[in-house]
Write a structure and sequence with these properties.
Elements: H1 2-30, H2 34-59, H3 64-91, H4 104-126
């Protein structure tokens, strides 16, 4: 009897993971630019995948070691890959939405350039 309850709990969690992925796919279409789509897609795929894998904990409890490794892999690779995709899109100048107000990466790069220029000028004055 306990096995059936575990399978029902696993099925409910799998359905929740599917619902998260469905809602996120709708949100993906509604986002105004590539950067927002990358962010929504990553968060949704991470959460939906983790919920789906978590459902397997209840259905096949003897797979717990493999499932933990899968969850850790998803938690590490999804954010890193989305970060790389967003940086690549930024550097090939994929346009922002017209509603985008702040570009923090551009501001950070300007500050880094000014501090590098300041260090260069300071070392030239001291003769180092």
């Amino acid at each position: 009897m306990d096995q059936e309850y575990l399978k029902i709990i696993g099925g409910v969690i799998a359905i929740l993971g599917s619902i998260v992925l469905l809602i996120s796919s709708i949100g993906l279409v509604r986002m105004p630019d590539s950067y927002n789509r990358i962010q929504v897609g990553t968060k949704a795929s991470t959460m939906g995948t983790i919920l789906s894998i978590s459902s397997l904990f209840f259905i096949y409890p003897h797979w717990y070691g493999k499932l933990i490794i899968l969850v850790l892999f998803v938690l590490i690779t999804n954010p890193v890959s989305s970060h790389v995709l967003a940086r690549a899109a930024y550097h090939i100048k994929v346009p922002f939405s017209s509603r985008t107000i702040v570009d923090q990466l551009k501001e950070k790069e300007e500050v880094d350039e000014r501090s590098a220029l300041h260090r260069k000028v300071r070392t030239q004055k001291t003769g180092e």
